[in-house]
Amino acid sequence: MIVEHLNLVDFRNYATADLTLHRGPNVLVGSNGQGKTNLAEAIVFLATLGSHRVSSDAPMVRDGSEFAVIRARLAHGTRSVLVEVQLNRQGSNKARINGSPSKPNELPRYAHVVLFAPEDLQIVRGDPSSRRRFADQLLIQRIPRMAGVLADYDRVLRQRNALLKSARARGVRGEGLSTLDVWDDKLVALGSEIIHARLRLASDLQGPLTDAYAAIAGADHRPQLEWALSVRGGDPEDGETDADADVRGEIEDLFRTALQQKRAKEVDRGLTLVGPHRDDLILRVRDLPVKGYASHGESWSVALALRLASAELLRNESPAGDPVLILDDVFAELDADRRRRLASLTSGYEQVIVTAAVEADIPEVLHRHVVHISAGTISDERTETAKDGDDD
């Protein structure tokens, strides 16, 4: 899959924007704050229904506007698909596919993107929510219907939390909480599906992660990933990380039992303490947790390897072909050896989009079609070298 054209209306700093992209490497160059990352963010949203920078959609709508539009023409082999999403400050987003109204959660069926960004370091060094977001955005691309499952789970979770807070305020205990059982059933059904999908994802990522880490770091430090599950009785959000992947057949029973055991504590705190929203993806190298033990270089290698492993997984499973790779201001963060290794590993994908403040930071193997961004203005300029090369 490649993105042939991107059109934006009232998105971030763009009143309007049109960007033509090409097969192979594309380089977007501009000083910090000019809007190049906004272009990357728009493409990523079509694939993941979320941003890598903010947790809600409103900040992506231009100041003074009520909605933003992202529109892209995607090429799947010889077939072209026009996808569009309207991001609303208030109310639900709207989508169109080839001009026909559609649900936004249908968009990831057509758009497949893997983003590399400086924020990726938070996946390995940040709090559990960063790792959950990484896993869930990849799940949505791998299994598009999971977008609906995750949204339904969040809705049930909010309603259950509201009931817990109300019970706490009214001093309700015991039989007075019988209505909570209905929400427990919904939470268990949706949450168990999410946990099962996450466990399968971790298992399927393990091989590609091992290969990608060795390619990036030039060493085998035995990278591992596994889920610490709150349904086992602990609370990974509070640092209780007894990771164990051998629970596949009993998740639903474990979930229900843990909810019963934590009910009194949940009422006291007015908060749901069990479920995939409390889980953590534990990452290790050299049999030690990356968070707190890995060096800066090792942490970057794990973060990059996670993205490369994601790309390989989508590449091998998707009938749409390669995912689009977006390397957003990554090269400035890396030493010369990792720059060279990452460029070599990604250059073979159907389409690569690279953003950079300094053009010289981009390795030669990715340096071909160059677009300059300045104050929200896009200047599509081919270098003389690239033009000469096209005539061959």
TrEMBL record:
Keywords of the record: ATP-binding, Cytoplasm, DNA damage, DNA repair, DNA replication, DNA-binding, Nucleotide-binding, SOS response
Principal localisation: cytoplasm
Binding site for ATP: G30, S31, N32, G33, Q34, G35, K36, T37
A Pfam family reported for this protein in Swiss-Prot or TrEMBL: SMC_N
Listed transmembrane segments: none
PROSITE patterns (alphabetical): RECF_2
SUPFAM superfamilies assigned: P-loop containing nucleoside triphosphate hydrolases
Gene3D superfamilies documented for this protein: P-loop containing nucleotide triphosphate hydrolases, RecF/RecN/SMC, N-terminal domain
Compartment(s) of residence: Cytoplasm
Ranges where the RecF/RecN/SMC N-terminal domain occurs: 3-358
InterPro entries in the record: DNA-binding_RecF, DNA-binding_RecF_CS, P-loop_NTPase, RecF/RecN/SMC_N, RecF_2
Domain of life according to the entry: Bacteria
HAMAP family xrefs: RecF
Physiological role: The RecF protein is involved in DNA metabolism; it is required for DNA replication and normal SOS inducibility. RecF binds preferentially to single-stranded, linear DNA. It also seems to bind ATP.
Family according to the record: Belongs to the RecF family.
The protein's name in its UniProt record: DNA replication and repair protein RecF
Source organism of the structure: Microbacterium bandirmense
Name of encoding gene: recF
